């Protein structure tokens, strides 16, 4: 971890410990430099990172302010990237329904940018949040990147293992979502009725070298899932 | 618009015109500098912006590559921020159901960070995509920021007017979403049945100075709405 990344984490801790709220002002640059004992360029990079992450916003000529989603029980839409901290406030557990090495479906091969004869790990899990079904998840991991998986790992955080155990660097992801009605199988897994609403999300996760390594299809229980998302003006 | 922002737009055009696909490599820095006749620091800033926007990804020591969601018919989850270009491929029209100046609900006042006695524009619209109902939208605009609105403006793009007509600078937004069942009124507006699924999205849009100016509640027609979203590794 680079210094400015560590300082960014320290500033986040500062915000939490001081219980700063949305629109509260952070100390001026000079004070932050002194407090964290770093140069101006480091603190600037830390603040830029925190702005990208949606933790602060900077108003030119006015200062740096806290940005804080403040709705309890909402999950970051991007948290299944293994952004652990976000899920820490929830008690998320997993039940592995199936785990096998196989050839990918045509759809999975396409999204993983591999041939259909290349092997993948297929993992089907039910995930629980505070003891209730959160989602049904089917994932295809490119075996040439994710070289090993087992049930014990899959019952915990696979992303944690991929990063810490395998040392892979997770980069960007593309997410597709729509709403539909549950089919019979999905309803059974989630403890709901056929025809009930579902949020269906497909994600393609890439390594920092641009190679997709995980294609996941997730069906959420509408009763126990609500999401938040922070957008920045640079997308305009 | 600053120079690097203009060059970023030019590079996006270049990608489109050359029909570059996901994982295609961009010309090296020196070539881009020569082609667009700008300095290294400008081209670097342009590429950083494009990376934030999810248009390219950079692989250290290897180059800059194209990132391109390639599913037709998917709307950027952030497109109702007025990111017009994204909606251009769709034919989106609006029918104004109601437009009035009034005092906000308690919920709207809270989300707009104003007192309940301050006035807002309340706008209720049905939005259509390619002639079919896309969503039912209820918005509250802080009248001290959005000083004027009428039905004609509301039947077009309100965000375009806010930025171009009123000269306001749109900053970041916070989005909350969940899935539920349509009630009778919503179903009637969308031409669906009571109990059918819905995606329900609440957004709080802020100016660059951090002041919220728009609180919107949008109910999507699950048959005609599917979304994509790009996430970057900096959130990890």
From TrEMBL, chains A, B:
Biological processes per GO annotation: negative regulation of DNA-templated transcription
One Gene Ontology MF term: DNA-binding transcription factor activity
CDD domains (alphabetical): WHTH_GntR (cd07377)
Alphabetically ordered keywords of this record: DNA-binding, Transcription, Transcription regulation
InterPro entries registered for this protein in UniProt: Bact_HTH_transcr_reg, Chorismate_lyase_/UTRA_dom_sf, Tscrpt_reg_HTH_GntR, UTRA, WH-like_DNA-bd_sf, WH_DNA-bd_sf
Coiled coil start-end: none
Matches recorded under Pfam families: GntR, UTRA
Alphabetical list of PANTHER family matching this protein: HTH GNTR-TYPE DOMAIN-CONTAINING PROTEIN, MANNOSYL-D-GLYCERATE TRANSPORT/METABOLISM SYSTEM REPRESSOR MNGR-RELATED
The protein's name in its UniProt record: HTH-type transcriptional regulator YydK
Native source species: Halobacillus andaensis
